[in-house]
Amino acid sequence: MNKVAFIDMEGVLVPEIWKFLAKRLNISELRITTREVEDYEKLMLYRIAVLAKYQITLPKIQSIIGQLDPIEGATEFLQELKRKGFEIKIVSDCFHELLEGFLQQLKVPIDTVYCHRLQVDSEGYVNKVLYSRQHGKHEVIEKYPLSLENSMAIGDAFNDFTMLEAVTHGYLFSPSKEVLEKALPIFNIVTSYQEVIDSINSKISARKFAV
To answer: What is the pTM (predicted TM-score) of this model?
Structure first.
């Protein structure tokens, strides 16, 4: 019986990349994330315009992100989920070009990651997003022939809502005030990895998860 954990990347396993870039580059316009804006495609068009305005290339972005580490305890959290029998699938609205270093640190195989790609021009400037899905993160889950009662999902922002709704056990991880205000009552609100593990243990005891 499949037990799959669909997990967001930014805000759950790694810090918010764009906020980190905003701080290092001293560009306040890049601080806006999906915790504040629901329309992700609109947000990315805005980000691309800001990067062009300040002449920030993809190689420069990658060099700055290389200084950032996963959230403390994230690797151990994933290992604990695996010990409990969960297959890990990363479902992120970030990009392969920005996540590769993190995946190595988190010990996550690239073929278990579902995210988008960035297109750059001849000078290295991002000019387009190549989306891997059209309607939301739930599209990844719908492709899996699994029992929903043994699937879970963890996210932190508006763009995670459809993914959390698509499983029986959806965890909203340290959400912003704006996200929390629109969260569905069925979401489990958690603020730490330990709270997720404790909840899973409780559900296993109550036979809501397979052992």
So the answer is: 0.90
Burial class for 30, CB neighbours closer than 10 Å (0-12, 13-18, 19+) = buried
Q: Name the catalytic one among 8, 16, 97, 160.
A: 8
Q: Could you say which DSSP state residue 47 is in? A: H
Which two structure tokens, joined as six digits, stand for 83? 């010990």
Pull the structure tokens for residue 1.
Answer: 């019986």
Mean pLDDT by 10 residues, the chain (211 residues): 88 94 95 82 93 97 94 97 94 93 93 95 96 88 74 93 94 94 95 97 83 68
Residue 156 is a catalytic residue: no
Half-sphere exposure (Cβ direction) of 11: Cα atoms closer than 13 Å: 26
Cα-based angle 180, 8, 77 (whole degrees, multiple of 5):
100
Is residue 46 within 8 Å of residue 52, measured between CB atoms? no
39 belongs to the catalytic site: no
Count of other CB atoms within 10 angstroms of residue 153: 28
